[in-house]
Design goal:
The protein is an alpha+beta fold. Strand 24 and strand 25 form a beta hairpin. Helix 6 runs parallel beside helix 7 and helix 23 packs antiparallel against helix 24. It is flat. The N terminus is likely disordered.
């Protein structure tokens, strides 16, 4: 094939550059680099790409100044992070040496950064002027790897080589690795490409175009996964739609295993083992998460292949979500039906049309203790669990059922596996497939307990009659507004009212209610019958005897059936004595409240948290409050000065822990209370514990008395005492001075005697007052 060199014009040299292009430039000067980098990065920014220049330090500032002059709003791009100039050592080097893995990792990091910034891809330019000749083979390998990777990800690369460092072998490597080379000819930059390569690539593109159309139009999703990295290198539109990607390109670089929701190890094992065997004999099914977070069921098959010279898995995926949901729904329906079949309270047996058992639910096994092996496949008339006479009875019923006729309910005896006998009620009906009878469904109900209950009911009725007749309450049944039953206690209660049981029967119950309460009784009864009043809380009414005697009765009622019809069961109790006690208690409370509200001292009651529950009205005179709210309505200690409040907090645990019903401190507690006008008054108060029936403390009770005048008198007395002490001390001091003046030889002797006597008294543990007396005496 004839080959040559096709040269593109210099104007718009980067206009036809597309994603995946791998270019190189041979330059002689810094100006050559600037002439190429400025239009190259300008085009990259226009393509909405992350532009990175791997800068050698000697060229950095000069090139950046040129970029600012040639690219409008360059500062904005830099602030956004879309144009970056980083040292080449940060990209290529590890531990001071050029490293291919470091360089590949830097490229992957740049792609992730572009994605985070919302950019389409990466345009990178790197200078190799720093390259040592010994590292040239490693660089060639890196460039070859980069060329393969750039066809799979949105990347454009430009490598600049200084001609001074190029020999013939190096130049051949450069032209072999890079598809396009930028050379300066006749003063302008041009892209040189191999003509033979151009023709071959065009033919390859035609072939690829055909296969791509087939690939993209396939109904099933197709994914090519690199065997070494485990990541998608190419995918079609159907696969993108299945996994929820916005485009096939968005799926490139994804690890499909990351999309699996559960059983990742199983799926990975099945896919790996299948592909290593060159194909998946059976489809692998798994649940995956789509890009939008929804879930999809996938069926995957595949074979091993090669992609760009590397082993890869060609995997066909199919969305089976609807099919899987239908299977799950069917399984769930079967599970529910089986659950209903097993959880019903009656035993269910299915027989074919010759009388063999084909199915039995769990109730059959649980009640009888039989296993499925004991039942399934056995003719019912050969089972040892039924008596011969009962088998004959069942045969007489099953035969007409097979012909589609209805059957009556029958009762039989059945033996459990342990030998116990059960009473069974059996209902049988034909099992049909359309109009054809294909078997029998028998529903077996264990009525053993019912039979026992019926026997027990007769005994219970006898016991209940004894209980009703001997109950402490009167029991009356009212039906159709008439009394139809009354027990003996009712007779006893009514005998007190000069009535008999016969007086009740057949007459309305309200006839025995006092005329003044009869209207309320009738209205309450009607509301109860209408469901508007549930009679919570017993209703009390006055009953009147024929002789005019009045007694209080308490009535409560519940609904029941009497002889198969609605009725009311009424309970009657004589509460006359209790009513008399309640009246006496009310009168007593009234007297004690009158006493509490008129004493001059303040009577107070609080709970254990010192929240007042009662304070006598005399509190107003004590605190001088002019409003309706008193200072002790929230907490008793809130009305005290801080010192008095602390005194209360200290004494309360002592009182509660002592087990006594009073505060045992030898005298009332003195407290200082805040008045309404901001002044304070002194009170002394007692405190007692109020206990419940179990002896637990529930409240505190106390009496508070104003002692402000007494406290003031004590203060004046204290002041007078202190003045007297000062006068006495001054007199003693004057006498001592006179003695010292008269006899200078004994001067200071009485002071030393005094100090020594006081020290001895203090060492003996005498009180302060006793020590003061010793001081005066000395």
């Amino acid at each position: 094939m004839e080959t040559g060199t096709a040269v593109k014009p210099a104007a718009g040299v980067f206009d036809q550059i597309h994603w995946g292009a791998h270019l190189c430039q041979l330059y002689d000067s810094v100006q050559d680099v600037i002439e190429v980098l400025v239009p190259y990065f300008k085009r990259g920014l226009e393509e909405d790409a992350l532009c990175i220049w791997l800068a050698p330090m000697p060229l950095r500032q000069e090139v950046m100044d040129a970029l600012k002059r040639g690219i409008p709003r360059l500062d904005d791009y830099q602030r956004r992070g879309q144009l970056q100039a980083i040292p080449y050592t940060d990209w290529y080097f590890l531990d001071g040496r050029f490293n291919v893995s470091t360089a590949i990792g830097s490229a992957a990091g740049a792609l992730n950064q572009a994605k985070q910034l919302g950019l389409k891809g990466v345009w990178v330019a790197g200078d190799t002027g720093w390259l040592d000749r010994a590292d040239w083979p490693v660089m060639v390998g890196y460039e070859e790897t980069l060329s393969n990777l750039m066809t799979e990800v949105p990347t454009v690369g430009l490598c600049t080589y200084p001609t001074r460092a190029m020999g013939i072998p190096e130049a051949l490597d450069v032209f072999r690795i890079h598809r396009s080379v930028l050379v300066k000819r006749d003063g302008s930059w041009q892209i040189a490409e191999s003509l033979g390569q151009t023709i071959a690539e065009e033919a390859l593109r035609d072939t690829e175009r055909i296969y791509k159309n087939l690939f993209d139009s396939a109904l099933n999703g197709v994914v090519v996964v690199d065997a070494e990295t485990g990541r998608v290198v190419v995918t079609n539109a159907s696969a993108a739609r299945i996994f929820g990607f916005n485009s096939p390109e968005e799926g490139v670089g994804v690890n499909p295993l990351d999309l699996i929701i559960e059983d990742r190890e199983r799926v990975e094992k099945e896919l790996t083992e299948g592909l290593l065997g060159n194909s998946l004999p059976e489809a692998v099914k798994f649940r995956a998460v789509r890009l939008d977070g929804s879930e999809v069921w996938i069926s995957a098959t595949g074979v091993m292949t090669e992609y760009r010279g590397r082993p890869a898995g060609l995997i066909s995926v199919r969305d089976i979500t609807e099919q899987r949901n239908a299977e799950i729904a069917l399984q769930e329906s079967q599970r529910r039906l089986q659950s209903i079949f097993d959880s019903t309270g009656d035993g269910i047996v299915v027989l074919d049309n010759v009388g063999r058992v084909t199915a039995a639910n769990r109730r059959i096994r649980d009640v009888g203790g039989w296993t499925l092996e004991d039942i399934i496949g056995k003719p019912f008339d050969e089972m040892a669990m039924f008596r011969s006479e009962d088998i004959e009875k069942m045969v007489n019923i099953f035969v007409p059922v097979i012909s589609g006729k209805a059957s009556p309910v029958m009762e039989v005896k059945c033996a459990t596996k342990s030998g116990a006998m059960l009473d069974l009620e059996i209902r049988v009906s034909p099992l049909k497939n359309g109009n054809e009878v294909i078997g029998i469904i028998a529903v077996l109900r264990d009525i053993t307990e019912r039979r026992r209950a019926e026997q027990g009911l007769r005994v219970s009725e006898q016991k209940n009659r004894l209980l009703v007749e001997n109950a402490n309450e009167g029991i009356v049944v009212v039906q159709d507004e008439r009394v139809v039953f009354a027990n003996r206690r009712t007779l006893e209660i009514m005998e007190r009212l000069s009535y008999t049981v016969d007086d009740f029967k057949g007459v309305p119950l309200e006839s025995f209610i006092h005329p003044d309460d009869r209207r309320v009784f009738v209205e309450t009864s009607r509301r109860w019958q209408a469901g508007e009043d549930d009679l919570q809380g017993l209703r009390q009414f006055r009953g009147i005897a024929k002789n005019g005697q009045i007694r209080w009765i308490e009535i409560n009622a519940v609904r029941l059936e009497w002889d198969g019809r609605p009725a009311a069961l009424v309970f009657i109790d004589d509460v006359t004595s209790r009513k008399d006690s309640e009246r006496a208690l009310v009168e007593s409370e009234k007297r004690y409240r009158l006493l509490a509200e008129n004493v001059s001292d303040v009577i107070w009651v609080t709970d254990l948290d010192l929240h007042p529950t009662f304070i006598s009205p005399s509190i107003k005179g004590l605190v001088g409050s002019s409003g309706s709210r008193e200072p002790m309505l929230n907490r008793l200690e809130d009305a005290l000065t801080p010192a008095s409040a602390q005194r209360v907090r200290d004494l309360l645990p002592t009182l509660l822990a002592s087990g006594k019903d009073y505060l045992d401190v030898g005298h009332p507690v003195e407290l200082e209370i805040l008045r309404h006008d901001g002044s304070t008054v002194w009170v002394d108060t007692t405190a007692s514990v109020i206990r419940d029936e179990a002896g637990r403390p529930v409240e505190l009770l106390g009496v508070m008395r104003n002692i402000t005048r007494r406290k003031q008198a004590e203060e004046r007395l204290q002041e007078s005492f202190e003045k007297l002490e000062k006068t006495l001390a001054g007199t003693i001091q004057a006498i001592r001075a006179m003695v010292d003046t008269r006899d200078r030889y004994t001067s200071g002797h009485q002071q030393r005697v005094t100090d020594l006597a006081c020290a001895i008294a203090e060492a003996m543990g005498l009180t302060k007052e006793q020590i003061q007396a010793v001081h005066v005496a000395g």
